[in-house]
Amino acid sequence: MTNPVRMKTFDVTIPVLNEEPTLARQVEQLHAFLKTHFPTEGQWQIVIADNGSTDRTLEIAQELSNRIPEVTFVKVPRRGVGLALKTSWGQSKADIVGYMDLDLATDLPHFLEAYRAIAEEDYDVVYASRLHPKSKVVNRPFKREVASRVFNLLLKTYLGVGFSDGMCGFKWLKREVYPELHEAGAQNDGWFFSTELLTTAEWLNKRIYELPVKWTDDVSSSRVEILPLAKRYINSMIELKKRRP
Name one GO biological process term (predicted). Predict the structure, then answer.
């Protein structure tokens, strides 16, 4: 008789910056989904990582934490998505850590696939890919699509990586492998940290699962400016390559 797979605990981190209008609604939607599919008490929590908000975001996060047992928050000392994730994961005790964007652009049922890939199939890292042939991308502006493909081509050419989408905000990993990835170069305080996770996982020969997804672009909530971001990413690629083991 085979032993049943042990239930894995997990933390879902949501990095936020000035998200007062939508924070409560989106977190409540995510909470309802997770509560339906993972009803066991104490198995999981949602971590709101506030990285420098100047509106009522932190206050709303505190209110949600007081009202909903599975919601907590961390206050990050300065802005930066990578810094927010490192702060959250650095204090986590869960088996699985990961993050998704507040706009829930990746359809929530994909989380069930990501969980199974790590908890049952023993993958080390799971990432969503909008560029997988089976993915369905909705409402994405043409210039963002082109920028994404160019960026990922640069990654493949310059860093020699094989993953298809380094920028998608939906990634999960065994918490036990995170210190290895950090040591190997996943250290950026900004958005590039998300790409560093996959790059260092490849360098260390971790088991990586590519997840095709349905992904809906929320153009109204985006603050991304492509050219300044591209310059930062190219500089970050150069710095990351210097750290290759």
Answer: protein N-linked glycosylation
